[in-house]
Amino acid sequence: MRALCWNGVNDLRVETVPDPEIVNPHDVILRVTLSTTCGSDLHFIDGYLPTMKAGDIIGHEFMGVVEDVGRDVKKVKKGDRVVVPSFIVCGNCWYCEHNLYSLCDNTNPKPEYQQVAFGQPTAGIYGYTHAFGGYAGAHAQYVRVPYADNDCFLVPEGLRDEQVIFLSDAAPTGYMGAEFCDIQPGATIAVWGAGGVGMMATRSAYLMGAERVIVVDRFPERLAMARKFVGAETVDYSQVESVVDTLREMTGGRGPDACIDAVGMEAHGTGPGHAYDRAKQALHLHSDRGQALREAILSCRKGGTLSVLGVYGLMDKFPLGAIINKGLTLRTAQQHGQKYVPRLLEHVVKGELDPSFLATHRFPLEDSPRGYEIFKKKEDGCVRAVFTA
Amino acid sequence: MRMSRTEALRDFDLQEAPSQEAPPSGRWSQAASALLAGTLVSLGLRRRSLGGTVVALASGALLYKGIQSRRHTPPLPARARGHAPPSDEASRAHATEVERTLTVGRPAEVLYRLWREPDTLGRIMGHFADVKSMSADDWHWKLHGPLGRELEWDSRVVEERAPEFLRWEAAANSTLASQGWVRFRPAPGNWGTEVTLHLSFSPPGGAFAEAVMKRLRGIPALQTVKALRRFKSLAETGEIPTLHHNPTARASAD
Ligand SMILES: NC(=O)c1ccc[n+]([C@@H]2O[C@H](COP(=O)([O-])OP(=O)(O)OC[C@H]3O[C@@H](n4cnc5c(N)ncnc54)[C@H](O)[C@@H]3O)[C@@H](O)[C@H]2O)c1
Ligand SMILES: [Zn+2]
Ligand SMILES: [Zn+2]
């Protein structure tokens, strides 16, 4: 089959690779109909997230049609049209039973990396480093989906692929991030990052009863989309003296009740703090540029909540003092997609959520390296590039 | 048996080389662990061996200390804990032993039965050894790697208390004196069972010993806990996560 492979930093190519096979009894093989880029991929494409190997197939957000079914699969049938969350989960362990799916104990075939790095391994992810299992990704014609009964969600009739694809990752991530904020009536939420994750967090915050959601980014097209499609107020951080001051003024001097970081370790920034981060990152002395997260911490009202969705490795100059002294609650996780997909499908069916506007660019799989190029550079108003296999 | 921290660390130096806790080999993965390990980043990238040591100490020695100082040590004679007889001081210094615990969400009876099934050890140890069941109480072990043939031995169950404890020993004529035990004890709340796996190896004397020990040092900590993880997945889900047949654009699947 054909698949998009990582061959080194900023080196993606579509290559011919072996077809996947059923290996374990709960596997299915999916014929991929649509897959999408994600901001998380940029971290290893740019070389900041280690444990990729040359030849790895990438891609972790996808949907498709079931082609082949393992012998112990009970619910999923050949021909089913399904969407699959990016984390592979067993459905049986303590973490799965407690809806903490991305912490699943049983799906990472290479637990030794994270055991050393984090003290405990998390679940595996498709096409997303060997620390997360080394599984083949989904920018391919076919992909093996383990534990299919827990990980495949049937798509209701009448929905287009573009309406559903983002339920694989961006939508549940944003929804989880909004849920972390424990939104009370009248709440104001600020969201850093107008990518797929930030826009989905914004829409979710409104669905949960937020009165105002303010999105911070610098790309005019993205900010325009945030206003148009998810009803955000927006702040262009490149046009204001201080994001912290701006948000404080917009909220009667209090600060937002909760702040969501949907940016992550490659935050763009300005000023001496950014120069410091950039230099250290270039020297590989640390992996993160933390401008967005630092602003979120300083902006948040006292006693408020900090919801971190952006992916980080490690970060210094972390203003822990502000968290302690302002009594902030820090909530974070990799997405527990299996918990949210059924609820999100209901929202889509009822017309309360339509993430299809995120799919700004569509390419055949053969042109996926070009898709990543414009996604990475945010060219031509690209929010997400989607690929048809 | 309580140990001070320094005692535990000394024990660690003697019995476990730091490299055992290092992640899979290769510069990239060294960098990986360092990057991912947060505070260890600059050490790990600038001074590899020091980084490795720190990683090893952080995840190995402290954990080892934790195990050593636990109040519940198994009710076994000293020899069963892998300590060679006192007369054999030389080989004691070379002995490699490791003990790791993992919680599995199933009752001890179920886990004990699974452990005793003929193909279970072969499946859970598959990442570092071929283990074949010869009869209910006899296994044939063969370590993966260049030394191949020499690192094969037979073992036999020598102590059994279902569903709590099982111990095996290598046959007396083996090149390698090895033994192991597994213990199942109830975990708190609804967590299931705490499963402890203990493996120990005392190599032969002579020039060959060095080479053998080098190989063995690769096994203990991470490999042992990985065997437990594979056992856990098998018990909780009926399968073990794998990259078998995993498509890639390189020669290997993993
Ligand atoms: N927790 C999870 O499970 C999970 C899941 C998916 C993605 N993520 C992470 O979420 C983050 C966003 O993903 P995405 O797909 O939306 O990425 P994206 O690259 O499309 O969007 C990131 C946005 O952040 C903006 N940005 C950069 N610096 C900023 C700053 N200083 N202040 C405000 N905005 C800034 C960029 O302009 C861009 O619009 C990534 O770090 C990704 O790894 C996490
Ligand atoms: Zn993603
Ligand atoms: Zn699980």
Automatic annotation (TrEMBL), chain A:
<dbReference type="InterPro" id="IPR002328">
    <property type="entry name" value="ADH_Zn_CS"/>
</dbReference>
<dbReference type="Pfam" id="PF00107">
    <property type="entry name" value="ADH_zinc_N"/>
</dbReference>
<dbReference type="GO" id="GO:0008270">
    <property type="term" value="F:zinc ion binding"/>
</dbReference>
<dbReference type="InterPro" id="IPR013154">
    <property type="entry name" value="ADH-like_N"/>
</dbReference>
<feature type="domain" description="Alcohol dehydrogenase-like C-terminal">
    <location>
        <begin position="196"/>
        <end position="265"/>
    </location>
</feature>
<dbReference type="InterPro" id="IPR013149">
    <property type="entry name" value="ADH-like_C"/>
</dbReference>
<dbReference type="GO" id="GO:0016491">
    <property type="term" value="F:oxidoreductase activity"/>
</dbReference>
<keyword id="KW-0479">Metal-binding</keyword>
<dbReference type="Pfam" id="PF08240">
    <property type="entry name" value="ADH_N"/>
</dbReference>
<dbReference type="InterPro" id="IPR036291">
    <property type="entry name" value="NAD(P)-bd_dom_sf"/>
</dbReference>
<dbReference type="InterPro" id="IPR011032">
    <property type="entry name" value="GroES-like_sf"/>
</dbReference>
<feature type="domain" description="Alcohol dehydrogenase-like N-terminal">
    <location>
        <begin position="25"/>
        <end position="155"/>
    </location>
</feature>
<keyword id="KW-0560">Oxidoreductase</keyword>
<keyword id="KW-0862">Zinc</keyword>
<protein>
    <submittedName>
        <fullName>Glutathione-dependent formaldehyde dehydrogenase</fullName>
    </submittedName>
</protein>
<comment type="similarity">
    <text>Belongs to the zinc-containing alcohol dehydrogenase family.</text>
</comment>
UniProtKB/TrEMBL annotation, chain B:
<feature type="compositionally biased region" description="Basic and acidic residues">
    <location>
        <begin position="1"/>
        <end position="13"/>
    </location>
</feature>
<dbReference type="Pfam" id="PF10604">
    <property type="entry name" value="Polyketide_cyc2"/>
</dbReference>
<protein>
    <submittedName>
        <fullName>Uncharacterized protein</fullName>
    </submittedName>
</protein>
<dbReference type="InterPro" id="IPR019587">
    <property type="entry name" value="Polyketide_cyclase/dehydratase"/>
</dbReference>
<dbReference type="InterPro" id="IPR023393">
    <property type="entry name" value="START-like_dom_sf"/>
</dbReference>
<feature type="region of interest" description="Disordered">
    <location>
        <begin position="1"/>
        <end position="28"/>
    </location>
</feature>
<feature type="region of interest" description="Disordered">
    <location>
        <begin position="73"/>
        <end position="96"/>
    </location>
</feature>
<dbReference type="InterPro" id="IPR047137">
    <property type="entry name" value="ORF3"/>
</dbReference>
